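Q: How would the C-alpha cells look for this protein?
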Amino acid sequence: MKLNFEKFKKDFSLSLEDISREYFIRNKDNMSIKKESTAIKNLATIIQNTLSISNDRGFQAMSLRDLSKESGLSLGALYSYFSSKEELFRIIHHIGMDTITNVLVQNIAHCNTLEEKLKHGIKIHLYLSELMGDWFYFLYMETKNLSKEERKLSLQAELYTENIFAEIIQEGIKKKIFQTKNALLISSAIKALLQDWYLKRWKYFSRKITVEEYAEFVIEFVEANLLKNKK
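A: Here is the predicted structure in C-alpha cell form.
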C-alpha cells in the first residue's frame, strides 16, 4: 500500500473546521452555544489564535484579553466555550491528542503486514506533524505548564503513540520478522526521531530536506536495526 504526503493530504481532512465540528458534536450538550455553524466557526477561531499566540510567546504569557483581541470575539463570547484559561488549555490539548492518535491508529489498521504497519506509522506521524505543526509544537512545549495530574495524562498520551510502535515491533519479534533485544528502546528512538522533525523543522528546511526524504531516512534507520541480524 503506497502512501505519500500528497495522497495523505487528499485522503484526510484535518482542517480546524473539521476538528472543531467533531469536538462540537461530542460536547454540544455541555455547551451554551447550540447553533452548530456558529459554534464550529468560533471554536476554529479560538483554537487557531490560541495556537498562534502560544507558539509565539507561550500559553502562560497569553491572557484571555489577548485572545479576545486577536480572535475578534468578546470575553463573554469566549466564556461560552470554556470557563477558564485552564479549561481552554485542556480542551486544545485533548482535541489535539485525540485527533493525532485516532488518525494514526485508523491508518495502521488498514495495513496487511507488520512491516507495512511500522512504515505507515512513521510516515503518518510525520505527515500529521506537517499538517498540524502548531498543534505538535503546542502539545510538546506546553506540557511543562500542566498541573501534576494533567502532566501525567499528557505523558501517558505521548507514551501511547510510542507504545503503538513498540507493540508492532514486539509482535514482529514473536513472529521472527524483527530481531532486536529491546522493542521499547527502538520505539523510544523512533519517537525521538519523529519529534526532531517538528521541533527542529528549521534545520531540515535549511538543508532542503522534504518530509518524504526524512520519512525514508527514519524507516531505513529503524529497519537497519530491526533487520541487521536477519539472513
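The first helix runs from residue 5 to 11.

The chain has a mean pLDDT of 88.

Upvote if useful.
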